[in-house]
UniProtKB/TrEMBL annotation:
<dbReference type="InterPro" id="IPR053135">
    <property type="entry name" value="AKR2_Oxidoreductase"/>
</dbReference>
<protein>
    <submittedName>
        <fullName>Predicted oxidoreductase</fullName>
    </submittedName>
</protein>
<dbReference type="InterPro" id="IPR036812">
    <property type="entry name" value="NAD(P)_OxRdtase_dom_sf"/>
</dbReference>
<feature type="domain" description="NADP-dependent oxidoreductase">
    <location>
        <begin position="15"/>
        <end position="312"/>
    </location>
</feature>
<dbReference type="InterPro" id="IPR023210">
    <property type="entry name" value="NADP_OxRdtase_dom"/>
</dbReference>
<dbReference type="InterPro" id="IPR020471">
    <property type="entry name" value="AKR"/>
</dbReference>
<dbReference type="GO" id="GO:0016491">
    <property type="term" value="F:oxidoreductase activity"/>
</dbReference>
<dbReference type="Pfam" id="PF00248">
    <property type="entry name" value="Aldo_ket_red"/>
</dbReference>
Amino acid sequence: MKYNALGNSGLSVSELGFGTWAIGGDWGTHSDEEALKGLDRAMDAGVNFFDTADVYGGGHSEELLAKATKGKEDKIHIATKFIRNGDINDPSNYSEELIRSYLENSLRRLNREQIDLYQIHCAPLDMLKNTDVFPILDKLKQEGKIRSYGVSVETDEEGLYVLEHTDASALQVIFNLLRQKPLKELFPKAQETGVGILARVPLASGLLTGKFSKDHSFEENDHRNFNKDGNAFNVGETFGGLPFETGVELSDQLKWIGDDRGSMTRAALKWVMQQEAVTSVIPGFKNEQQVIDNLKSLDVPPFSKDELEKLNTFYWNNVHDHIRGAY
């Protein structure tokens, strides 16, 4: 396992981490037993970084992480997120009183005294600009309640604002083979300013596994069903903003990437890890087998210069114009 410095946080995190949205909820049926097996398998393989949020299963994913990492708190780094338990468009939701309340609730569920990376969870740009959220986070850092802070963003514009006007240690961004825009401006700026990059939605909500057909149906409580057109939250969080049927067509055209790499999944994760600006990629999982398969991405051959250029051209010529929503 390779480990990378996460911005100026002082943390060294595994290049492959895992996100815990799916084991908390909103991805259909899931099993706590399988989730804990998956977490154990990941840690046994050297994964030392997990991303979660206070709204994943109403805090359930934080509780699962507490169980899995008990006795390993000094070795396993946890990033959690806050602000979406309230109205993200209401300035009062960004008060020090409420932010402290969100933090204390996460600390209790995680059974920890300090959060390694505390992230603003996809707040609108005007809230980032016009509230005191960053001075409050600076204060919490000084108090030792959080070790460092970051921002999970929906758009490059939000990310650039964070890089230019705050002391955030990390940006969490939607980034995958079907969502390459951050390579153009955001990532070079992050490297210039020494801010870490956490790549979420690396498999485009499963599109880049190559296992879906256009007539595939998802469970009613799976966000890939109820948010496929952005009806519940930002459309970019589901299939990277692509209409599902279009995404299936485009992913079919990328199946060649898995020819010498075992599977599309492994190849797609390897491509993300191969990007110099990316500190850690955080795919989700629901069971131990998915963790095992994702871990195999560490050992597959990297993409050649010609392959990287081919994939970049494919994105700008065939994919970019289909992505919906601000990004």
